[in-house]
């Protein structure tokens, strides 16, 4: 009886290096969409940074990700797309109005007129539509400040840097909200324009830091849908 991996290769009439290794050692293959060169590059970096062996290639409108070895937990790391955004704070909402919104909507948050959004926090805040998003992050590093507090430093893409510089120039003397997965983690008053493309986050919960860590290899341009997952057993 022919081995399953060899039969698959013969059926396809061709078999790349990763497929041959999958057939020999076993592993996992994911088919995800939509495909793009940018998403492929990010996934390749995430594989490398995770110390995983595998490859990513384009197949029509999908990306095929092949990883050697049984590591289902790698899926969460590879395809993570945490929600990060930066917003102008709508300062027309004073403490009384924010308290009323909290009383009405509780901790669920709500969409308001004109594209504004109420975030219950803490701190509760009303924000205008996002001006930067996850895709504007080029890389991320975890560290500590001088007091030993955990911080996360974001380096923005060229596009993100330009947007953030324009936004902070416009908002000098006003507040911006940095939001992670729906929670305003920082609501600073902008003291001066920030043109270097570097953003430092402090006061994050451990789960928020963990959610952001895959961005150390770059952000996906958009969330990916896992259409097929295939586990290949090692050859006997």
Helix content: 25-40%
CATH fold assignment of the largest domain: Gyrase A, domain 2
Q: Can you tell me the number of structural domains?
A: 2
The major pleated sheet works out as: 4 strands, antiparallel
Radius of gyration: 22 Å
Side by side, the strands of the main sheet go: 2-3-1-14
CATH-scheme architecture of the largest domain: 2-Layer Sandwich
Structural classification: alpha+beta
Element order, helices and strands? HHEHEEHEHEEEEEEHEEEHE
Instruction: Tell me the β content.
Output: 25-35%
Summarize the structure.
This protein is an alpha+beta fold. It has helices at residues 4-12, 17-25, 37-49, 74-78, 95-105, 158-170, 206-212, and strands at 27-33, 54-59, 62-68, 84-88, 110-111, 117-119, 125-127, 132-133, 137-144, 150-156, 176-180, 183-186, 198-202, 225-232. It has two domains: 4-80 and 221-232, Alpha-Beta Plaits; 84-217, 2-Layer Sandwich (Gyrase A, domain 2).
Can you characterise this structure?
The protein is 28% helix and 31% strand. By secondary structure, the protein is an alpha+beta fold. The strands form four sheets. The chain has a four-stranded antiparallel beta sheet, with helices on both faces. A four-stranded antiparallel beta sheet has the order 8-4-11-12. The radius of gyration is 22 Å and the shape is elongated. It has two domains: 4-80 and 221-232, Alpha-Beta Plaits (2-Layer Sandwich), CATH 3.30.70; 84-217, Gyrase A, domain 2. The chain starts with a helix and ends with a strand. It contains seven helices and 14 strands. The protein has helices spanning 4-12, 17-25, 37-49, 74-78, 95-105, 158-170, 206-212; strands at residues 27-33, 54-59, 62-68, 84-88, 110-111, 117-119, 125-127, 132-133, 137-144, 150-156, 176-180, 183-186, 198-202, 225-232.
């Amino acid at each position: 009886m022919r081995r399953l991996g060899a039969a698959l290769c013969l059926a396809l009439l061709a078999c790349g290096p990763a497929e041959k290794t999958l057939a020999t050692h076993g592993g996992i293959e994911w088919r995800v969409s939509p495909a793009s060169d940018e998403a492929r590059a990010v996934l390749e970096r995430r594989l490398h940074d995770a110390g995983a062996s595998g490859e990513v290639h384009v197949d029509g409108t999908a990306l095929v990700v092949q990883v050697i070895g049984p590591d289902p937990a790698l899926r969460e790391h590879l395809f993570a797309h945490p929600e990060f955004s930066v917003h102008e704070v709508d300062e027309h909402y004073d403490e009384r109005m924010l308290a009323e919104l909290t009383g009405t909507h509780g901790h669920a948050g709500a969409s308001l007129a004109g594209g504004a959004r109420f975030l219950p926090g803490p701190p509760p805040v009303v924000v205008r539509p996002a001006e930067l998003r996850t895709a504007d992050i080029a890389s991320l590093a975890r560290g500590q400040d001088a007091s030993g507090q955990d911080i996360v430093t974001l380096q923005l893409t060229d596009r993100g840097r330009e947007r953030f510089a324009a936004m902070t120039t416009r908002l000098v003397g006003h507040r911006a909200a940095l939001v992670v997965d729906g929670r305003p983690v920082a609501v600073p008053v902008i003291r001066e324009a920030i043109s270097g493309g570097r953003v430092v986050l402090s006061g994050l919960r451990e789960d928020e830091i963990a959610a952001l860590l895959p961005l150390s290899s770059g952000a996906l341009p958009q969330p990916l849908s896992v259409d097929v997952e295939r586990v290949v057993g090692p050859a006997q």
